[in-house]
Amino acid sequence: MEPPSQQSAAGGRKRGRRGGARNRRKNTSSSPQARPPSPAVAPPSPSSPPAKRQRKAVAGQGAAKSKGGNTTSLLDKMRARLSGGHFRMLNEKLYTCSGKDAFDYFKDDPSLFDVYHAGYQEQMSHWPEQPVNVIISWLKNHNPSWTVADFGCGNAAVAKNVKNKVFSIDLVSEDPSVIACDMAHTPLEPTSVDVAIFCLSLMGVNYPSFLEEANRVLKPSGWLVIAEVRSRLDPNTGGADPEKFSKAIIQLGFSLVSKTVRIGTLKMFLE
Description:
This protein is an alpha/beta fold. The chain has a domain at 131-270: Rossmann fold, CATH 3.40.50.150. It is built from eight helices and seven strands, in the order αααααβαβββαβαββ. Strands 3-2-1-4-5-7-6 form a seven-stranded mixed sheet. Helix 1 (10-26) packs antiparallel against helix 2 (50-96), helix 2 packs across helix 4 (110-124) and helix 3 (99-108) crosses helix 4. Residues 1-32 and 34-67 have low confidence and may be disordered.
């Protein structure tokens, strides 16, 4: 949301103009005289009353502060709009290219990934519920000895908040604990993890290959945990059919344990 704009300082500027009008009325003698400078921006005339000079000086300072505040507010708005626009552009890029293309894209300019995640965190700050927190709570209520693979880990919140061993995976990261790679081709060993997580990270035209990779690294009794934006699984908004999506995952060998649909998100736990 954009912050409300500050009130303008039109009142301060208007007082300056009325003062200028009074000065013009005073200078109507037959011999031309130079117009005195505005008291708000120049030293006052010695003949001016001290109290009046003080009030006008304060008014001029107030106008300058208000004008500066408006400028700052406008710059903040412009930065927010540019940042939001950049995030939407990068988000669209991730949804419409392959995982390999996305990996190469951010590898060429890692700073873009920082821009994306800053925009992502800004968007998430307005959500009433953070899906990653639901997953973290779920893990804390299960076996702490489980090994976890967090596909599309972002800021690695899962690894930072649970006792489990967590392989944090993403396209790019300055954090040495995060594995930077194409999520369709991770360096994890086959049948090496107990839980595979996709929290708002099934992005790209080849996202089914991410699920196949999760299936490869999961143990036979492992868990696949998915949290996704509801609109992506809503045919009415151009998303995938949720029933077909579930059946496609089941065809990989999983069984649906629970599915929770809440405002904005869909959470699935499969075994």
